[in-house]
């Protein structure tokens, strides 16, 4: 046997998975098709009040306090440069009538923050440096898997170029179009939202006061997430044609459109990163495990980003799978199917609930049926008024991700 576990995919979830396996003493091979970044130059540190900042990453993630704690255990969180991280202390979510809203406050929940906003590049680098000296880790990149063959007590993964790696278990962390998932013949049901998320960062005239804003509008869902130095990150999930139009606008025109759409909540905006657009879809897998295979992250579930939960769900997969493998007791074989089923049972409900909630919201707020608009705005006002419901939502959010409006 060349190793115990092969992790395929070195995105945020695959890296975290390889790191989380360290205490189990298992020998891990990590494979990623992408090359390491050419020059890992340090990111400039930012003074919080800094006015104009270069080098921002337009990909940012809302990370829950629960997952920040997990990343701390993995030795990743403390190595972040916190001058580039913002905390979310309040969330304001608006309906499409401009008046209905729901407010979540960390203060009311007795917590310091609801989430942290972190640049993707920074998180990726922190995970990579935590892995750099990990004992028992064999890291191959760029490397492309070509074939996967099952034997009774092992799998053999062949790489392009001919090398074969024998292992007890393969973890598919290779994203939404997972190669591992296809090899294991795990079926999926997939639906395109016919929407794209347009992301870009802006400097704002008025202080955001560590508030994450979200507007459910006729043309989609627009979120402004706080970043340090009075910057915000836009995530505007909108119909394909509208997204294409927004992504082609010049910096001033796009800033103007966002200002207008959020009713000038943060005053004048100035764009600091070019816009990027990501197609949105829902992917549900028929199983999270197969013989000698487990799926984590987007390989296991893809959801609409309106609640900022995708990578949070992935980190929880990592935590649960690493726990099951670490505490396998007398079961020596880490690819044992009954062991993997334990992981699947532990994750199924959480994943299904999040898919239901995000898909339901995406559909509710894109429905144009008469009366639905009134109903969703009334739902926001009602939930805002019922303290126990809000508390429940916030408690769930603190564990896994940002609050999801009901
Ligand atoms: C606009 C937008 C905003 C979002 N915001 C948030 C947020 O605020 N909070 C949140 O929790 N989530 C958010 N998400 C979701 C989040 O981006 C994803 O859930 C997360 O990136 C999934 O990470 P992953 O590592 O599973 O997959 P990926 O990031 O897709 O990584 C897959 C990795 O596998 C590698 N790979 C692929 N195929 C192969 C192969 N055949 N062999 C080897 N390697 C392979 C790739 O190179 C890549 O490194 C957002 C998503 C979008 C679109």
TrEMBL record:
User: Which SUPFAM superfamilies does this UniProt record tie to the protein?
Assistant: FAD/NAD(P)-binding domain
What GO CC terms are in its UniProt record?
ubiquinone biosynthesis complex
The cofactors it requires, by name, are: FAD
List, for all copies, the residue spans of the domain called FAD-binding: 159-348
- Please name one Pfam family that this protein belongs to: FAD_binding_3
Key words, A-Z: FAD, Flavoprotein, Monooxygenase, Oxidoreductase
Its pathway is: Cofactor biosynthesis; ubiquinone biosynthesis
InterPro entries from the UniProt entry:
FAD-bd (IPR002938), FAD/NAD-bd_sf (IPR036188), Ubi_Hdrlase_CS (IPR018168), UbiH/COQ6 (IPR010971), UbiH/COQ6_monooxygenase (IPR051205)
A molecular-function term among this protein's GO annotations:
oxidoreductase activity, acting on paired donors, with incorporation or reduction of molecular oxygen
| Protein name, entry field | UbiH/UbiF family hydroxylase
